[in-house]
Design goal:
CATH topology of the largest domain: Aldehyde Dehydrogenase, Chain A, domain 1
Shape: globular
Keywords: Oxidoreductase
Family: Belongs to the aldehyde dehydrogenase family.
CATH superfamily of the largest domain: Aldehyde Dehydrogenase, Chain A, domain 1
InterPro entries: Ald_DH/histidinol_DH (IPR016161), Ald_DH_C (IPR016163), Ald_DH_CS_GLU (IPR029510), Ald_DH_N (IPR016162), Aldehyde_DH_dom (IPR015590)
Bound molecules: nicotinamide-adenine-dinucleotide
Pfam families: Aldedh
Number of helices: 15
CATH class of the largest domain: Alpha Beta
CATH architecture of the largest domain: 3-Layer(aba) Sandwich
Largest sheet: 7 strands, mixed
Protein name: Aldehyde dehydrogenase
Length: 516
């Protein structure tokens, strides 16, 4: 199809790729996994997930009741208090985590297809993510053997101090729809490596790979009750994980709105929290950068996962001397991006996850244009079956506009000019968020000044969106609390216990001390 723009000043968005073949497999019938048993919900209700690209039913799941959640928490609590999981040797837990990694490897095709059909993301990208999860489980297995406490031999002849790291207990894990297996794999293997037991609540839009992972865990020998999966709605399933007295820690990834609400409930109930939330991540572009690399990374940064990415490079701050050249270059590059059916082998940008999400994105675009910003590309839904949105670019944005500050969570780039380095840093920091940022310049002084000055948990220098299990990930300000990954990832799921060992005879407290 051709896609003529309504406004002739706006060039045509990329033509939509259509599928070579329609998906034909039967809907995946997921069940919950509670105390080592596969279960339906106690009232027998189920819900369906439709493919946002093709419209058909991809999967169905039990819609949990409060009683199902209670059963899962009880199972995790018993598995923690009675063991054996928290008491296993590190090497034994590591062997099981490595077996899980192998189990994921054996299911890459099946998991990737379901992930692509439920999220709308390109199949090739889903395959990369599922394969990447193997490495996360392997990395966590290493930490299961090496995470340790501390000893203090410096406290005097009669004292030895030992600091143990013990598993924190029962952990509730709540995950979003945009990277379902990946985000679960940033949490679960590390909690298990620590010796914790867990209740997992996947997004109701993308529960398949979480449920399939339980088949893998079962095969790998994870004992009953150690990991429990409950499927269903946020308020019924998620909220008890923030409130229940048997839960010791809540680890949540999702929106800042829901995360701050659940974080508030959890801390009121004196639980530890870890929150990975939204972002409005600036890429800051200086005139002396490697132009081609920068243009590619800007287009990749905002259209990867259709912009439904907490790390999306959704704001570009560009030096005013190159602002117009930059806008024209990214529009030209964005027009080459292959958008369309996620199963098409060339697809790089698939469907938007839901009708709601699509209308929220369109609403944000309209607000920006109404506020005086200039639409340079896209801005509309494709006139086709499926939830597809044109790659969109908006320039002449000022830092006080809503589109410059709010997370849009779609394929929408906003361009904001700046005049000097300090102003770029000030604009970058002038939002509630602080997840990630990038700087593009060939001058090391500019790069380091920006990297040190921006409020962000991750700063990329002349690159964007790279990630490694070795490197901690998380946000400043409203982007979250705590860090995932890195060598401390397992420690987050532990409590320390201080043991003080007295050596030799202990002097009585009430005896008079000799006069010096
Ligand atoms: P969301 O907050 O709507 O949902 C996340 C999870 O919370 C889902 O499982 C959902 O069912 C559950 N939930 C929703 N309402 C709830 C309630 N009232 N009580 C308990 N649980 C509830 O987020 P989403 O739409 O699934 O994901 C998109 C958001 O996630 C974006 O804001 C994005 O930036 C953020 N995100 C952050 C990171 C990160 O690492 N910082 C990663 C991915 C996504």
């Amino acid at each position: 199809m051709t896609n003529e723009p309504a406004n002739s000043a706006v060039p045509a968005a990329p033509t939509l790729l259509t599928a070579t073949t329609a998906p034909t497999q039967d809907a995946y019938r997921g069940r919950m996994y509670i105390n080592g048993a596969w279960t339906e919900s106690q009232d027998g209700t189920r819900f369906e997930r439709h493919s946002p690209a093709h419209g058909h039913v991809v999967s169905t799941f039990p819609e949990a009741t409060g009683a199902d959640v209670e059963a899962a928490i009880k199972a995790a609590d018993a598995a923690f208090r009675q063991g054996p999981w928290p008491k296993l040797k590190g090497v034994e837990r590591a062997r099981i985590l490595l077996a899980v990694a192998d189990g994921i490897k054996a299911r890459v095709d099946k998991m990737s297809l379901l992930e692509s059909l439920e999220t709308g993301k390109p199949l090739s990208q889903a395959r990369g993510e599922v394969s990447g999860c193997i490495d996360l489980w392997q990395y966590a297995a290493g930490l299961a053997r090496t995470t340790s406490g501390d000893a203090y031999d410096s406290l005097g002849d009669d004292m030895l101090g030992i600091v143990l790291r013990q598993p924190i207990g029962v952990v509730g894990l709540i995950t979003p729809w945009n990277f379902p297996l990946w985000i679960l794999s940033q949490k679960l293997p590390f909690a298990l490596a620590a010796g914790c037991t867990c209740i997992v609540k996947p997004s109701e839009l993308t529960s398949s790979t979480t449920v399939m992972l339980m088949e893998v865990l079962e095969e790998a020998g994870v004992p009953a009750g150690v990991v429990n999966v409950v499927t269903g709605k946020g308020p019924t399933v998620g909220q008890p994980l923030a409130e229940h007295p048997a839960i010791d820690m809540l680890s949540f990834t999702g929106s800042t709105r829901v995360g701050s609400m659940l974080g508030g409930l959890a801390t009121k109930n004196l639980k530890k929290i870890a929150l990975e939330l939204g972002g409005k991540n600036p890429q800051i572009v200086f005139p002396d950068c490697d132009w081609d690399a920068m243009v590619d990374a800007v287009v990749f940064g905002v259209y990867f996962n259709a912009g439904e990415c907490c790390n999306s490079g959704s704001r570009v701050l560009v030096h005013e001397s190159i602002a117009e050249r930059f806008a024209q270059a990214v529009v030209e590059r964005a027009r080459q991006v292959p958008v369309g059916d996620p199963l098409h082998p060339d697809c790089k940008v698939g469907a938007i996850v839901s009708e709601n999400q699509l209308s929220e994105i369109l609403g944000n675009i309209s607000k920006g244009v109404d506020a005086g910003a200039r639409l340079r590309l896209g801005g509309k839904r494709y006139d086709a079956k499926g939830l597809y949105l044109e790659p969109t670019i908006i320039s002449d944005v000022t830092p006080n506009m809503g589109i410059a500050r709010d997370e849009i969570f779609g394929p929408v780039l906003v361009i904001i000019p700046f005049s000097d380095t300090q102003q770029a840093i000030d604009i970058a920091n002038d939002t509630a968020y602080g997840l990630s940022a990038a700087v593009w310049s060939s001058d090391i002084n500019t790069c380091l000044t920006v990297a040190r000055g921006v409020d962000a948990g991750t700063v990329w220098v002349n690159t964007f969106l790279d990630g490694y299990p070795e490197l901690p990930f998380g946000g400043f300000k409203s982007s979250g609390v705590g860090r995932e990954l890195g060598k401390q990832a397992v420690e987050d799921y532990t409590e320390t216990k201080t043991i003080q060992l007295h050596i030799g005879e202990r002097k009585n407290w009430w005896l008079p001390r000799p006069v010096a």
